[in-house]
TrEMBL record:
SUPFAM superfamilies: FMN-binding split barrel (SSF50475). This is Pyridoxamine 5'-phosphate oxidase family protein. The keyword Ubl conjugation does not apply. Transmembrane segments: none annotated. The lineage of its organism: Bacteria, Bacillati, Actinomycetota, Actinomycetes, Pseudonocardiales. Keywords: Oxidoreductase. Signal peptide: none annotated. The keyword Oxidoreductase applies. Residues 20-125 form the Pyridoxamine 5'-phosphate oxidase N-terminal domain. It comes from Pseudonocardia ailaonensis. InterPro entries: F420H2_bilvrd_red/Heme_oxyg, Pyridox_Oxase_N, Split_barrel_FMN-bd. It comes from the Bacteria.
Amino acid sequence: MQTELDGRYSDPTAAATPWDTARERLAAAPLYWVSTVRPDRRPHVTPLIAVWHAGALHFCTGAGERKARNLAGNPGCVVTTGTNALREGLDVVVEGTAQRVTDPARLQEVADAYVAKYGEEWHFDVSPDGTFAGDGGPALVYAVAPETAFAFAKGRYGQTRYSF
């Protein structure tokens, strides 16, 4: 992995945000925004919850939902998290390819991670068909491992790029 501070968008005294710091922010964030591309090439953005597990962000969605239909045609996506505060905090953007997760053991690990992070309200059972079963019906699970990521430090502004 390569880490690089972009001086064009950073305070002269800023330092690159270490990947460990950005990854911790990804793991701890309560809410994320996933951006996908519709078949007609228009963007689609929606908030969701997710968990960091085994080097990737994992989220789930119903097969008929717009983001799942978009990912079926174009698995490239962007996942963003951070704060709406202007002068404090850290925003993180992950660009990657959404990979469907169907392995029962890995799905169980992700289901356990959801409960550990969000509580029993977000308990999922793993179905034999490689989906999560929950109150909303079957859900497809996706993993997005970073291909490129950015950290935007605020206060002392710094833009860090990570290439994997």
